[in-house]
Amino acid sequence: MGPERPLRGMSDDLSLWLRQLGLAQYETVFAEQQIDREVLPQLTDADLKELGIPLGPRKKLLKAIAALQSDSNESRLSDVATNRPASLLPESTEAERRQLTVMFCDLAGSTELSQRLDPEDLRELNLAYQDACKAAIERYEGYVARYMGDGVLTYFGYPKAHEDDAERAVHAGLAVVEAVGEIGQTTDRETRIELGVRAGIATGLVVVGDLIGDGASQESAVVGETPNLAARLQALASPNTVVISRATHDLAAGRFEYADLGTHELKGIAGPVQAWRVIGRSATESRFEALHRTGLTPLVGREHEIGLLLERWEQSKEGDGQVVLLSGEAGIGKSRIIQTLRERSAADKPVRLRHQCSPYYANSALHPVIEQLERAARFDAGDPPEARLKKLERMLAQSTRDIESVAPLFAALLSIPAEGRYALLEMTPERRKERTLEALVAQIEGLTQERPVLFVFEDAHWADPTSLELLELVVERAQGIRILALITFRPEFHPPWTAHTHITSLTLNRFSRSLVAAMVDKVTGGKPLPAEVREQIVEKTDGVPLFVEELTKTVLESKLVEEVNGAYVLAKPLPPLAIPSTLHDSLMARLDRLGAVKEVAQCAAAIGREFSFDLLSAASALPSDKLRNALDQLLDAGLVFRHGRSLQARFFFKHALVQNAAYDSLLRSKRRQLHGRIAEALRTRFPEVTTLQPELLAHHYSEAGQTGDAIEYWLQAGRRATERSADKEAIGHLTKGLEALRTLPESTERLRKELTFRVALCSPLMVTKGFTSEETAEMYARAHELCELLGETEQFYPVLFGEWVHHHVGAEYGLARQVATQLLRLSEQQNDIAAMAVGHRLLSWTALMLGGLSVVPPHLDKALALYSPQRHRTFRFRFIHDPRVATLACSAVHQWLSGYSQQALQTRAEVIAYARELNHASTLAYALFHAGTVTAALSRDAPAVEKFADELVSLSEARDFPLYLAWGRVTGGWATAKSGKQADGMKLFHQGREALMTGKWKYFGALNLALLAELYLEGGDFDEALATLEEAKRLIHRTEERMCAAEIHRLIGEVLLARDPHTPEPADTCFREAVDIARRQGAKSFELRASANRARLWASQGKRDQARDLLAPVFGWFTEGFDTPDLKEAKALLDSLS
């Protein structure tokens, strides 16, 4: 615990100057070396190095000394010691949003003290109390915001964030309790008092940075619940205790031991508050263990790295000592690999020496070594010096017989008085350090005589200079002893020991997307997350395992998903995933290290993950040279990287979460300002973006609060996405536009715009959500209501079309015919040629499904005659599919049913080729379904069905067309079963049929059941076949879908005959009914098939002439398609009857 009041031999202003630089830890060094204001300007780099000051602080000191000598410097050393500051105010005074840990300390019993003490003594006591608090707080780099009588308000995470601010606050709280307790012991006996202090700590989101007050009373204000919560928790605390909130407890995790204080109702705080009293530091060996006391996520990947470490371990066990330098960015998994190595080497029973460096002790000589020795000796907190000395001697006996010579060195290192047992160490400090380091290395060498040693030194980037000297000795001596020295560090640390043959350097890289997905599954316990949630996790975490784990846990702990049948499903619409509180401080720390350049990072973050120099320049309004300098600093800091070197170079944030942290720290008002500048720059200086990426302008105008502009660009973006068959993206853009529209005042213009958005939404919704989904139906119903309310005609056509599709696919053919008739009449009244073409097409399909084949051709002819390829090609975006494709698909089915199979094949080829030419996914899917699988299935051409079904499935999976996908599986399953893979085919068929039923797709239901019954029949399951066909008859009766009625009766006859060949009469009746139905409909292909069945039956009964007379006229009607299976079979049968 560093003192706050100036040390003896050191002036008050010099002491405060060091604190202003953030170098308070060197006050002792300056005081011991009698450095004052006169000596200060004469210090050189060599002088500072001799004082043991590391390179970074040396550079900072030399720069500050040079500034003091400059005449232009506005903050001279003599000006520092003015009024008693809290902590020096941050350079930047612009307010920010950030996660903050707030500590509020209050002197216990202050009222009683004011009554007991003289005012002057009370003043001295208060000053001593404030000094003690400030010293303890600044040791952990907290920011004392305000003194309030005997209260002290402190921030951790502002103005400079650290990756462990909550932990720092708790450490500081415990240090305050200890420091204040020592004040009473230093007063005169007559006035000795027992001082007590209470501390409350809370963590949460605040707005911080607005300067309030004037002069010495000026401070950075914090707005939010967190300071109030900290004050209320302080009131809960007993004297000399620290009480923390849930958020602080979760972040500090296993670094401390706690007592649960239960929940409390606190004034001004909504809901019950859980509180914990901090007992003290935990006994865990490493930061990693402390943060994972509740268990580890199973290891994912890293097989190569683990294998290499195990190889080095095997070498070291044989006396060929090895050193592995393990580097990687924060969160990449260095400590996880160490843990795995410990587990896998456990069978060898090694001596484990684990050293953990800490940012709090980067200038405390041999701190990680001291902690390791104290654990190894099994010191307890209450051990008296004598007990500690005995434990130390027992530990040293494991590695040396010459305890007499080394025990005094170890005792001095561990601050154990040993004068009564060992001779005083009469040597210079430098000689004592040398001998201590030698003794430490000798101890390690001694341990290797009995067992191999696993020497772990974690986070060397935080190591103090003396510990690094020890490491150098260990590395040099390792080669000939049984030791594996594993040293971990982050990329900013550059180890000087790489030039040895026994050293291996190993850098951990980020996870691939597949490994990220595997890790997500491990965290969820194998229960899958929704695809869109998993995708956000993959995108935001950039392959950093810690980010993956924490973001996944945050999702699971939120109410965003819920478990249903062993999987997680979305419980509400998916927003952008927020930064986990466990990562917030670490990410902000990276940004705060940038100083003023952070504002450029924030501006870039508002643009997005990717940005260009030109756009950043327009948004930031900084001069080009300053902006380039700022970008260079961002590149040097590793926060962004660059693609290309020219003026067209693109910049990217290295981590999506760093971008999020920079953006989240902006106040909403600042965000709006930046987004407005970005949007205007895009509109005026980058016209190609307006055309190609209107959603980008829409986003920035939305975030800028410029709703009118945003709405127009969301509409453009939605229409453009629809044109590219990017239906999900279209839904997203148009939905955002609708949401923005709702914020405008009600008016006729708003209703018209709403109708425009809803009509634009209908097509992509129908394709992706399903033709019969409730969401689709509701969208069309509201659009219909708006059309009638506004007297709208032009927009009414696609609305009526959507209603027709809803009824048609739901097998409500009567209602479908009514809607189609309404659309046709309206188009005729308005003389709208394009809408007339659509109306005739709809009536042709409805008539076909109802079995009215004779009604179909006039509508088909009119639809095709009215269609203009030049004028109507864009209609596919209004009516889901291209009208010509849909009309020709109907024609192909009609041609086959009518007995023109060759024409049907030609039309099929034409319509699918035309659909491909249009490059419109929904239209192609429509063609593959109707012209492809339906015509091929009707003609029993299994290879053709399989070809079209496979393509339909692939396209539907890629574009997320759920019902087309289901139909592709139904027909693909039928074709697979027909090829001899009965079990596989039936499984696929049922999967598809179940999805159709779930999606309420009843369209072509009779054909669906006919195909299934045929498979049951071929498999010999006559009962299932008959039950399926009876279900088809009921469906036809209920829906009037009579197109396949003849085929259903024919198949029933086949099943009855196969089940009971000796009772042919029922089958004969079915064949007769099938022929009659087909004749009435004009379905020549079905008539031929049923006639062949009946003729074959009659022939088997000896009625050969009757059989020939039945079949010959039907066969003789046909003029084409003689190479089709039906006509080939009919001809063969006729030949056998001749």
Keywords, separated by commas or semicolons:
1138 residues; alpha/beta; DNA polymerase, domain 1; Alpha-Beta Plaits; Rossmann fold; 8-stranded mixed beta sheet; 5-stranded parallel beta sheet; 52 helices; 59% helix; disordered N terminus
Description:
The chain is of the alpha/beta class. Among the domains are: 69 residues, DNA polymerase, domain 1; 186 residues, Nucleotide cyclase, GGDEF domain (Alpha-Beta Plaits, 2-Layer Sandwich), CATH 3.30.70.1230; 206 residues, Rossmann fold, CATH 3.40.50; 58 residues; 105 residues, Orthogonal Bundle (Arc Repressor Mutant, subunit A); 134 residues, Serine Threonine Protein Phosphatase 5, Tetratricopeptide repeat (Alpha Horseshoe), CATH 1.25.40. 59% of the residues lie in helices and 10% in strands. It is built from 52 helices and 18 strands. Strands 1, 2, 3, 4, 5, 6, 7 and 8 form an 8-stranded mixed β-sheet that branches. It has a 5-stranded parallel β-sheet with strand order 10-11-12-9-13, with helices on both faces. Strands 16-18-17 form a 3-stranded antiparallel β-sheet. β17 and β18 form a beta hairpin. The chain starts with 11 loop residues before the first helix and ends with a helix.
